[in-house]
Design a protein that fits this description.
mainly alpha, two-stranded antiparallel ribbon, 6 helices, 2 strands, globular
């Protein structure tokens, strides 16, 4: 499975924001849009948080790409299998 480059910039603002992290679904089978509709408070200032984390996200991606931990293909997508393997290595 491949994930678009742009979507990578949304993750940090979700997992680093304490109020958002505490209401994350316990199951990966929960669709993101349904979760965000059911927890509308997490959408407050979300765009601003994501924007503020862009430099950190770019730095993290650069770090991982340079070390061949994730691969960005010509369609600007990243193989999620690489991310899963990286998670297991940590």
């Amino acid at each position: 499975m491949w994930i678009s480059y742009e979507l990578l910039f949304l993750f940090l603002s979700i997992i680093l924001h304490k109020s958002t992290k505490t209401v994350l679904p316990q199951s990966v089978s929960t669709y993101m849009h349904i979760w965000s509709q059911n927890n509308q408070e997490v959408r407050i200032c979300y765009a601003q948080r994501a924007k503020e984390l862009v430099p950190f996200t770019k730095e993290a991606l650069h770090f991982l790409i340079v070390r061949d931990k994730i691969i960005l293909n010509e369609n600007e997508t990243i193989n999620t299998n690489c991310i899963i393997q990286l998670r297991l290595e940590i």
